[in-house]
Amino acid sequence: MNVGVNGGASFVIPFLAVFMAVIGIFATGHEYRHGTIQPTLTALPQRSRLILAKILTVTALTAVATLASMAINASVMLAFWGEVPGLFDDPVRSALLGYLVYNVIYAQVGLGLGLLFRGVPSALVVIFLMPLIIETLIVGLTMVPALEWLAPIVKFLPFTAGSELMLTSAADFGPAAPGFDFFGRWASGGVFAVCAALVIVTAWTLFKKRDA
Amino acid sequence: MICAKGLHKRYKKTVAVDDLSFEVRPGVVTGFLGPNGSGKSTTMRLMLGLDHGEGETRFDGEEFASIRRPMNRVGTLLEAKPFHPTRSARNHLKMLASANGIDDARVDKVMELVGLGPVKRKKPKGYSLGMAQRLGLAQALLGDPDTLLLDEPTNGLDPHGIHWMRDLLKRLASEGRTIFVSSHLLSEMQLMADELVVIGRGTMIFNGDVDQFVREFTRSTVIVRSPAAGTFISALEAEGATVAKGDDGELVVSEMEIGAVGHLAFTEGVELAELSSRSASLEEAFMSATGAAEQFVAEKPIQTAHASRGAQNA
Questions:
Q1: What Cα–Cα distance (Å) separates residue B212 from each residue in B188, B195, B218, B282?
Q2: What are the chain B neighbours of A212 within 8 Å (beta carbons)?
Q3: I need a labelling partner for B13 at 20 to 30 A (CA). Which of A57, A173, B58, B129 fits?
Q4: Which strand (E) or helix (H) includes residue B74?
Q5: From first to last of its 314 residues, what are the pLDDT tens digits of chain B?
Q6: Alpha-carbon distance B212 to B189, whole Å?
Q7: Does domain B2-216 have CATH number 3.40.50.300?
Q8: CA geometry: angle B30, B43, B288, nearest 5 deg
Q9: Given this chain, do its domains B2-216 and B219-279 carry the same CATH topology?
Q10: A40 contacts in B (CB within 8 Å)?
Q11: How many domains does chain A have?
């Protein structure tokens, strides 16, 4: 049910989140890729106002896109099945809300990385490398008995923790996986949000200090 | 009125702009001259807060970064012409306009004004350098500002375009606006600017009006041609003038007024074929003022081994 409405979000990264993160990267990275940061700052020289405006725009766009996609998926299911059971009951309700929050945070990470690296390619690499390779690798290594001591840090891996937002039942990492002892839906989302905040605060501070 | 005070910018060990202070008055065009790499663009970026350094610049008493809708007060055209590849020229301007409360009608009006009306819906990446320059000027004029800060606005324009730009800037200045234009085209500045700020290697060389600059950095000379040049030289030198021989055998007399030279020829009974004064151009003044301050000095052309061998054989 949840999978139907969020469009398969329980795969490693939901497609829409990736798409919105790329939009986030473009929101800041393209300013440097095409050099438009210079006319932008001569039209709007207050740098914090500019970043705040970009954050609000990307957040609003991500929220609208996510809600629209859920509405489309739900109506397709309604047309097929004639009913969409449990949509407004937990755990589906919380998982869908979590999916919305996940997408917004993911897009903000993209925006922050684009601003931090002042370009598109490196931000794209990091935003895919982190969840798909690095975090997956760490989770995989915990299944090696000698590296089992890695298990407690898994709940602090931002993208892995963030995925907890979208789940309707405990994540299944396979029979060999040790218990990761995640914080729970909203607290795990908090780990993800803190990571996004760190990226953005770093990028924001540097943006204020650097030459445009 | 632009008031720049103590502008200073250092990149690691190189000082790009060294303690520049100057004022740019309204009602006249002020030229900003300097050789390549002398820090003109960096100075302009410092003035706009794009680069961080020391010192402050006030536009009618206010720093650029604290002006809420700056395009209505200060129009800028900087050296790089950055445009997003998927946006039309008109949309590029519309985006900047919307951040400054400027309506779409004004966007169309400035595009007509700079002569880009017929191509306003095209993407700027297909524009020629001259068209991109015009779009940059349209951007500067968007908010009908009282102050214009233009970095090499005539770059890439054809002679017709340069003429048009010169007339436009002079007209805008005569309306009481403050115009600060950088250039390395001296002939342009001679026709356009009333005041000059000249820098070399980031330091101030001159700040004042154009005529004063030419006077200060050049000596005007008197050209004399005479069948009896040889005897006239000693007469001139006896009167305290400095005489050099020109390429065509003419005498180049300095440190003596043209009238005095003529009078001396009359009293000495020397026949003259030519008596004229040559006043140095802004270009010569610029060369003498910035000669020691050039950042990138090209090697003098040297004779190749092949050519010198050929000369020996001959």
A1: 17, 9, 10, 10
A2: 45, 50-51
A3: B58
A4: strand B74-77
A5: 999 999 999 988 888 999 999 999 999 999 998 888 888 999 999 999 999 999 999 999 999 999 999 999 999 999 767 888 889 999 999 999 999 999 999 999 999 999 999 998 999 888 888 899 999 999 999 999 999 999 999 888 888 989 999 999 999 999 999 999 998 777 778 888 999 999 888 889 889 988 888 777 776 788 899 888 888 888 888 888 888 888 888 888 888 888 888 999 999 888 999 998 876 666 677 777 776 666 666 666 655 555 444 444 44
A6: 14
A7: yes
A8: 65
A9: no
A10: 96
A11: 1
Pick the closest to residue B86 from A156, A34, A189, A97 (CA basis): A34
Nearest CA in chain B to A33: B84
The interface predicted TM-score of the complex, written ipTM, equals 0.81
Mutating which of B52, B62, B98, B150 best tests the A interface, going by the most A Cβ atoms within 10 A?
A: B52
Q: Do A43 and B71 touch (CB under 8 A)?
A: yes
Looking at the partner chain, which of A34, A45, A210 has a beta carbon nearest the beta carbon of B65?
Answer: A45
Query: Can you give the residue ranges of every domain in chain B?
Result: 2-216, 219-279
Are B297 and B200 in contact, with CB atoms under 8 Å apart? Answer: no
Nearest CA in chain A to B76: A42
Q: Which helix (H) or strand (E) holds B275?
A: strand B274-278
Are B82 and A209 a contacting pair at CB < 8 A?
no
Query: What's the CATH number of domain B219-279, 3.10.50.40, 3.40.50.2000, 1.10.287.1490, 3.30.70.980?
Result: 3.30.70.980
Put simply, the answer to whether A34 touches B71 (Cβ < 8 Å) is no
| SS3 call for B134 | helix
Mutation for B interface: A32, A205, A211, most B CBs within 10 A: A211
pTM of the model: 0.81
